[in-house]
Amino acid sequence: MKLILNSIFLVFSGIAAFLAWSSRGGKVDYNADVKPILNKHCIGCHGGVKKAGNVSFLFEEEMYKPGKSGKIAVIKGDPKHSEMIRRILSDDPDERMPKDGAPLADNEIDILKKWIDQGAEWGVHWAYGRVEEPEIPSLRSWRNLFGLLGNDKKWAQNEIDYFVLDKLREKKLDHNTDAEREILIRRLSLDLTGLPPGEDEVKAFVADPSPGAYEKLVDRLLSSPAFGERWAAMWMDLARYADTKGYERDASRVIWKYRDYVIDAFNKDKPFDQFTIEQLAGDLLRGNDGVPTDEQLIATAFHRNTMNNDEGGTEDEEFRVAAIIDRVNATWEVWHGTTFGCVQCHSHTYDPIRHDEYYRYMAFFNNTRDEDVTSETPTLRHYKAGDSLQAAALRDWVGRYDTKQAAEVYRFLKVTEPKVNSHDFALGPRSTLLDSKYLGIQHKGSAMGPSLTFTGKERMLITVGTGKEGAKMKFYTDSTRAVKVAEIDVPKTGSTWRDSLLVIKIPALSGRHSLFVEVEHPKAPEDWVSFKWIAFQEPFPGGAEGEEKEKEYAGLLSRRVLNTPVMWEGEGDLFRKTQVFERGNWLVKGDVVNPSVPALFDQLPADYPANRLGLARWMVSRDNPLTSRVIVNRFWEQLFGLGIVETLEDFGSQGAPPTHRELLDWLSVRLMEDYGWSTKKLLKIIVMSATYRQSSETTAEKNNSDPDNRWLSRGPRVRLGAEQVRDQALAASGLLSHKMHGPSVMPPQPDGIWLSPYNGEKWVVSEGEDKYRRALYTYWKRTAPYPSMTTFDAPSREFCQSRRIRTNTPLQALVTLNDPVYMEAAERLAKKMCGSSKMLDDQLSQGYYALTFKKVSPEKL
C-alpha cells in the first residue's frame, strides 16, 4: 500500500512540477529576473543619481519615454527596435552599453529580450506589495494529502514549522530533534528576559515531564518584569537612546523616563500599533481634557533622542535641520526597513523614490517646536504630587468659563508651548546670542522678534534675568515709533544665565506684528540682559479671582522641576513651510512641498490628518506593506541571529531577499489580524515552534549546505549582546540587582574614560545596589560609551542602528579578566563555589553547572 501511495505521490509531484513550470511558461518576472540585471549593469548611470542621456530604468514611466537621442529605450513587445537592446548588442564601443562595464552575459540579454517581447511588464518589489496571507505549506502538500508527512508532521508544533519544513525539503536538509531541556530553558530565558534561569528553575523544568511544562515556562518568562528590560535594550539602539546630547560638548540629558516608558510598554504588552503612534505622534493625541497624557508625551522622546549641539558658535537652524533629517531616516529604518537617507541628496539609487519625496515626507516632522536650544524645550514638566494636583485644579477652574482655554492653560503648564525662543529674534545694535543660544541685550541695545498674531492676547510671559539692578526692557509693535506693548523692570537674578518668569498685562491689540525690544541699563551698560523665551496668551477669566489664579499659574511655571524633552507640534504663527533642499544642502532651498508619502505606496486616506498622527496611523494600517514585515523580521532576528530578511535595515531591491517569504507574510498577518499587534503573542508562537526548540548541534553536511543556518536546519546559537554578557556575570554570581526604573547609574569603569572638559561633569560611581543593576540602566555617554559594552559591540547611539556587528576579539577576553565588574562577580562566584562543598572537584562542578547548566565531564574536570 505504501509503495502504491509513494508511486501516486511521485506521479502527482511530477504533474505539479510541470504545472508550476508551465504556469510560468518561461514568463519573465520583472522583480526576480529583470530588476537584478538592471541594478547590476544599468542603474548606476540610468537611475536615481544619474540619468545619462535622460534615460532612467528606475521609474516605470521614464523607461518608456524617448531619451535625449529621441529614441525609446524600451518599446513594449518590440525588442528589435528597443534602443536598450540595440545598444547592448552594438559592436561600436562608443555606443555599446554598459559603456565602461563588462558586457552582459548571453542569458541576461535573452532575459531582457524575452521580457520586452512579452510586453515589458513592470513589477512592484515584493516588500512594497500588500501583505497577503499565504497558504500554509502542509495544507497544499501532496505528501500531506496522502499521509506521507510522517515524522515531519509529528515534529511540527505549529504553522511556522510547516513553512520551515517546506524550505528544508527544497534544500534537501533535515531538521534537528529538540535541544536538551537544560539547554532549552537557558536559551529561552536568555532570549525572553536577557537573564539566565536560576538553578532551581532549571531543575524544576527538567524534572517536569508534563506536556504543558514548556508552555508554562514560556508564559512565566513572558510575564516576568525582566522581559520588558530585555526587549527595551533592543529598542534603545533603534531609538538611539543616550544620557547625553552628543557632539563636542556631549552634555547630560535627562531622558531616562523614555527608557522606562519602553520597559513598561513591553511588559504591559502595549499593542505595537499604539506603541508606534505614541512614539511618533503622542503629542497630537487628545484626552477628554484636550491634552495628551504624560505617558503619551514621554513616548515622543523617541525622536528627542536626536543629538543637540550646545557648542558656542554653531548655527541652531543647521542642527535643528540635522535632527529632523535624523528623525526621517530613523523612522524609515525602524518602521519601513528601507534606506532613505540617500534620497536627501538625489532620487534613490535602486528603488523608485524621488528626491522631492524625501522632503514631502520630512514635512511631517518639520513643524516640531524643538530648535537645538540648550534647554531642549519643549520639555514635559514633571511636577511633584501637590503641584500636579494644583495644576489640575487650575485647569478645572478655567474650564468653568472656557474649556478651550482650560486645555491651553494645562498644555502650557505641562510643556510651556506655544512660545517663541529668543534665538529667533533678529539682532540689532548691542545685542547678541549668548553662547549662541540666548538673546542678550546691553544698554541702548535692541532686537526684533518674528511676526506674531496679537489678537486676543493680553498677557505676555517672559523669562528674563540680569546680573545687576536697574535694567529696564521696553516692548513695541514693529518699532519704537509704534504701539508700546509693555515696559518692565528686569529682576536682578544674580547672573546673566539665571532667569525669572514674569507675567505682564499688555494692551489689547489686533493683527500680526513683529515685537521690537530695547534695553536701558545705564548703571551697568556692559551688563547683559538675557531672556530665553516669550509667549502671548489670553488673560484668565473671573475678574479679581482670575488675577489670583494667574499668580498661581506663574508660581507653577516658576517651579524648578524635572524635565523630559518631548515633541510638540508648532501651529499658527509657528508653522514652518518645508522646501526641497537642492542636492541635500539646507542652505539652498527649492520648491515648497506638502506632507505626503512616496508615490510608491498607497497615500494617506482622506480622513487622516496630514501630520505625524496621520502618518503614524498610516504606518500601522492594514494596507501598509512594510511595518508588520519589518517588525516581525526584527523580533525573529533577535531569536535566531539572522532575520528572515538578513538586512533588517533594507527591505529594498538591494537588500537581501527573504529566506522564508511566505512565513514572514504569514506571521505579519497574524500580528495584525489575530494578535492585535501583541508582541508577546508573536514571540510566543515563535518560541513554541519546533523550529526554535531544535538542538543547535550541527553536522558536516549542514555546515556545508547551511553554514549560517539560514534554512533553519538546526536551533539558534546566538552570541549574547553586550548587556547580556554583563548581566549574566552579575546574575551567576548573585550580585545582580533587580531594581527597576529611575535615573541612569554609573557602575565602576576604568579611570581616564570619562573626559568632559567643557561642562565639568564627572563619572561618580554609584553606590549600593545601583552598582549591580542591569546594563540597560548604565549611563550612556555618546562620546565615551561604557567601555566594556563597546568592546562587546554596543554602538555609540549617535544614530539609529538596526543590527549590531558581532565580533570576536582578544579585547573581549581581557574585559572579562580585568574589568572591575567582572572581577567582583568572579570573586563572588568563587565564594559561592567554595561554600558549596569542601571538595575541590565538587566546587568546580557546582561552578560549571551554575554557569552552563551542564554537568562537567571527568575529562574537563
Compute the average pLDDT. Answer: 90
Task: Determine the structural class based on helices, strands and strand pairing.
Answer: alpha+beta
Note the main sheet.
6 strands, antiparallel
CATH C-level category of the largest domain: Mainly Beta
DSSP helix fraction: 25-40%
Number of strands: 15
Tell me the domain tally: 5
* CATH architecture heading of the largest domain: Sandwich
Radius of gyration in whole Å, from Cα? Answer: 32 Å
Spans where pLDDT lies below 50 across 5 or more residues: 1-24
Q: What is the terminal-to-terminal distance? A: 55 Å
Q: Any idea of the CATH topology of the largest domain? A: Jelly Rolls
Provide a count of the helices. Answer: 32
Kindly report the name of the CATH homologous superfamily of the largest domain: Galactose-binding domain-like
Mass-distribution shape: globular
Percent of residues in beta strands: 5-15%
